[in-house]
Input
Amino acid sequence: MHLKRRTHAEGIDETNEAAERAPGPVRVHAARVHRALLGTRRRTAATLAVLLSALALSLPSPYTVEGPGPTADVLGDDSGKPIITVTGADTYDDDGQLRLVTVNASGVPGYPVSNLVALWAWLAPGHTVTPSEAVFPVGQSAEEYVEESEADMTGSQDSATTAALAYARTLGVDTDGVEVTMHVDDIGGPSAGMMYALGLIDKLTPESETGGLTIAGTGTMDDDGDVGAIGGIRLKMIGAKRDGATWFLAPESNCDEVVGHVPDGLRDVKVSTLDDAYRALVAIGQGKGDDLPHCAA
Output
């Protein structure tokens, strides 16, 4: 003999039918019990939904979150050491600042970010959220990420030194026997090359090229003095304005990202070579920067 198992719904229906056949006070009590049970189930479901949502938001995100990072004056110090050190030649001080700019990145190898933070960044102005695979190779370890970033920075400094010394010779600077070291903590990648090069030239020349102003910029630099595109330029302009810059030297190859996104109070200048950048720097310092080329659509 087989007994049929009643479903939960059938049990509720029979309870409702029994309640309807019962005397008035009993029917009222049964209805209240039924409503209480339904309310309990709904609250339990809501609680579970909240807990599952909280768990999902706390899990590591497959996205990289970027925001404006710190800036540094390449004519100054970092952690108590000059960012650019020159031996074998006279060097000169400048009253202004030449600031390299950076992007803070979370969600890269070694720096995980939660889904909650990624959601907040997606809603917050001044941040970008990008699929991680578009930022670094899938499976890259934290050690590999750091090594690659440091190698890019070292290569950038070497190329900036080569290009800057060659350019300084065109300005009449004797560079025989000159040795250069560049140092900055916790910053990697190649995008500061142009600012390193400008900083070295500034140090080797008696003129105060900045004219006492704070000028920021970004762009890679190769041995031949060509300025290349970089990532995160919109965020870098925000960081430059935040730290007091009024002028921003931008690679011409990044102009499509610059147009329409320059913060109020910051003037962009497009450059494609070290010569462009140095001439712009001198013009700005002399108060003749109004005619320098903007990025245009």
Residues 8-58 form one domain.
